[in-house]
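Example with several molecule types.
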Amino acid sequence: METNQKKKILLVEDDTALSEMYQHKFTLEGYEIMAAHSGGEGFQMALAHKPDLILLDILLPVMDGMTVMKKLRVDPWGKNVPIIMLTNLNPDDNILKGVVEEHPAYYLMKSNSEPSDVVEKVKEVLK
Amino acid sequence: MMLSKIIKLSLIFLAYFISGKLGLELASVNTFSAAVWAPAGIAIASLILFGKKLWPVIFLAAFFTNLTTTGTIFISLGIATGNTLEGLVASYLITHFAGGRSVFNSARGILKFIIFAGFACMISVTWGISSLLLGGIAEAKNYSSVWTTWWLGDISGAILITPLILFWTKKYQYHWNNRRLLEGVFLLFGIILVSGAVFNSIFFRIPSYLPLAYLCIPLLVWSSIRFDRRETLTAILIMAVISIWGTTRGHGPYSLYSPNESLLLLQTFLDVVTVMILALTALVADRKRVDRIFQSTLDNMSEGFQIIGFDFRYLYVNDAVAKQGKRTQDELLGHSMMEMYPGIEKTEVFKYLKKCLLERKPHEMDNKFVYQDGSEGWFRIKIEPISEGALILSIDITREKEVDEMKTEFISMASHELRTPLSAIKGFISMINDGDYGKVDEKLVRPLSLVAVSTQRLINIVNEMLDVSRIEADRVKLNLGNFYIQDLIEEATATLKPLIAQKNLQLKIEKRERLGVNVDKEKVIEILNNLIGNSLKFTEKGSITIRIELKKEKVVVFVADTGVGIEKKDQAKLFNKFEQIKFKRAGNVSGTGLGLYISREFARKMGGDLWIEESAVGKGSTFAVSLTSSKRKINKSEQKRK
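Resulting structure tokens for the full complex:
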């Protein structure tokens, strides 16, 4: 817990219930968590606050998660920030084509993962 | 109506009368025994066309023709009766036993016509000559020669004139254009020139002793192939008129004998030529009809049908191909594919076409086609080797693909929309249970765990529906890798172990050396979860045993339980979608009935299979899944791969 206290996480999730749930969980786990509710907002917050990790939904208003990631990957800071795609789309959906190949990132299915699983993944990535 | 009928009857009367008078003009052995008797054909054709009620017109025409020739009422009545009987008998037999108007459409019909007409002419001739004998005009000693001349004249008239009238009154299907008209003029000129020269010594003189009558035949064959039967029979008529005229004037190869014999020989020649050409025209017309049927069938097909030669030229394209390729049939025919669609040689279709032309191998594929204007279309293509090259069938499936795409996108979005609130419910319950919101009241523990189970069931249903839609749209994608089957079993059983323990069941995993498999890890875990989960659902006491065997190139995992078992009649139904067999002893068991169907499809997609190894009611079941074996040593990074 001690080592995690300074870690900043940006959560980009438009569903209020899920956003609140993850915020609560990560706060309890000792992380500093910021929430954005659209892709555009998420992109701006990422560049402004430079979090240690971004939890990014894919289907988002204004700008979808894939676009946010592509835009971040061309930014000098953004190209290295760990991103975990949190979504309910299947890995072989068209929209997700090339996530892993083109823009290295982690991928979690929300319906298959409990909040504690997401925390585990974050810990693993930030190790 | 009445007026047109009177005109029609008058025309038949006049045609009979005039041609009869002309025929009798040529009679030499006897006033009534014409070597060329066109009225026979007029009578038979008219009676076929308008029915037997027409007989009085024929009778009157025949009567006046003879009366104006001899002036004897009795003899004229006798001959007219014979002529009328001839027409009636022939038309009756042809109408009832040889197809009526269609009698000349086949070689068989033509043969029947000759037999029936020949028989009818015998009646007429015998009746007529008997009248002459009774009237004292003919002598009994000439009976045989008069009979032969008369019969030959009648049958010749029937053979030449009947088809001519039938085809001239038939619906005309031939399409004329300027080129055809020019060709027709040449043909007409050729017939007049050749028959005039050969039989009539007009244009240029050919000595009579040269037997060159056959020179007319090539022209008639040309006409049969290129024109309708109407034109060909008219050509024969023109040739007949010129040759009869010439022969009576003492010209041509048949003029070397007595006038009567000359005409009889000529008539025999004309009959043989007419029958031969009639048979040829029947064959040509039949061929053209079949061609028309195929052409219109192929052009009305929505599927593209094309034949490509070994040099990649379009040998045949139907209308649909032209439309699909945004070209016309005339533009494509005879041209090469590369010429018509530059860059086509880089396409998949071309690659398989080439393979088909060289190796004679068929191929089927779905292919996207980009037009010159940039628009796109999808086609299902079937390439088959044929003797001329290759046959390509193409079906436009652009709309099908669009709908398919829309359906998959819809299911994908719908499942996403369903999964989002379910994820929230699942997450919150898990956090509540974990004590993230403070200590949980004792009374809420049980209801909360039930909500968690129900939520997971709902998530499973959504996942299964999505799997089925992927399987059916053939969109299952495999992420193959090498893994040890023991590790996959371990991972699959990890989540189920607490539930197995809860039911006091034993889980036995038989030990053996580690075996590698080349599979999609997630899919195998889903299959194993499904099989072990099923055993767990239907087993109340005893054990669940997992056994691994190496069979040829496959690693087979057996999942055996000591549960309720499945009746023989139900076993085949198990793999049907939404099939839930009712088990009395297992009570009400939840599930969509999609699990086994999905598992088997996934196993097959990975090159394996899934089946019931054995099952007995009350004793338990054993399911087996085969997976592709991996002989390669599996390194650590691969084992960790997600």
